[in-house]
């Protein structure tokens, strides 16, 4: 029986699918006015690189496989678009509607979703239904993060590191205000005995990406995890399937990255993948099964690439 089938049939296990860096295409029509900004750099990059390696057909294949796996929830950790054009943001909203209803899909924005000043505000308005915490009725904006959703025994906590940056830069920012709100949220959900999943676009680890793509506020985030803890951190941005460990309050925390969801085979990064995580146990003995599913070549269907069992205190066993 395949790993995803085992996940599907284990009683009481919460199944969470994780995708990132969708980079939906093709680009809508671009005017000279649109390119009178940092977008001109991204447009050139799209024409030279991303257009050849980021394919909608690949995304469709990955999404179809996710739906076949029937997860309880889907986490999308940013970069739905490329240049954050108005047409792209609207196209991403329609894509999210096909991915799943807002109560079953949680999104955090990435740097491409905040590519130029004002873009993040537009994305927040367009994608608000997928970035709203439980019981929150106020408009979504950059100050709405982190948000909290509770599904069964799992607390899904969405953090935003997205901000418009200068040309050739793709940095993220984790500032003091959001850190304080996140700390209170982590304590409250720990008090309820929930399994806390932090969703963030930029990897909160040194050396995970080049300097021009790194997260400002890594030390602040690490200090917060040591003080308040979490059970799992999911990120994107690197376009790599990675697994690291971070010190937490009571145990080490798995930090999991994923290949870009729209990456066609043959590029410099791994072909498209998604993570399928099975979460089981209780606060005294949480267990996580991580299965990476993805493409291995052109015209292939996703298959299990790796399965890992994460036990208490981040113990790692290859299944």
Helicity level, as a percent range?
Answer: 25-40%
| Shape annotation | globular
- Tally of separate domains: 1
Continuous helix count: 7
Q: Measured on Cα atoms, how large is the radius of gyration? A: 18 Å
What is the H/E string? HEHHEHEHEEEHEEHEEEEEEE
| CATH class designation | Alpha Beta
CATH architecture term: 4-Layer Sandwich
| Percent strand | 15-25%
Query: How far apart lie the N and C ends?
Result: 13 Å
CATH superfamily: Metallo-dependent phosphatases
Low-confidence stretches: 1-10
The count of DSSP E runs of length 2 or more, i.e. the number of strands, is 15
On the 0 to 100 scale, the average pLDDT is 88
- Judged by helices, strands and strand pairing, the structural class is alpha/beta
What profile does the largest beta sheet have?
A: 7 strands, mixed
CATH fold annotation? Purple Acid Phosphatase, chain A, domain 2
Short description:
The protein is 27% helix and 22% strand. It contains 7 helices and 15 strands. A hairpin with a 5-residue loop joins strand 14 and strand 15.
Report what the structure shows.
The chain has 319 residues and is α/β, with parallel strands linked by helices. The protein has one domain (3-318): Purple Acid Phosphatase, chain A, domain 2. The chain has helices at residues 3-9, 39-53, 56-69, 86-99, 119-126, 176-191, 218-228; strands spanning 14-19, 73-76, 105-107, 147-151, 154-158, 172-173, 195-199, 215-216, 232-234, 243-246, 253-256, 273-280, 287-294, 303-310, 316-318. The chain has a seven-stranded mixed β-sheet, with helices on one face. α4 (86-99) packs parallel to α5 (119-126) and α6 runs parallel beside α7 (218-228). The longest helix is centred in the middle third of the chain and has 16 residues, at 176-191. The protein is globular. It starts with a helix and ends with a strand. The relative contact order is 0.16.
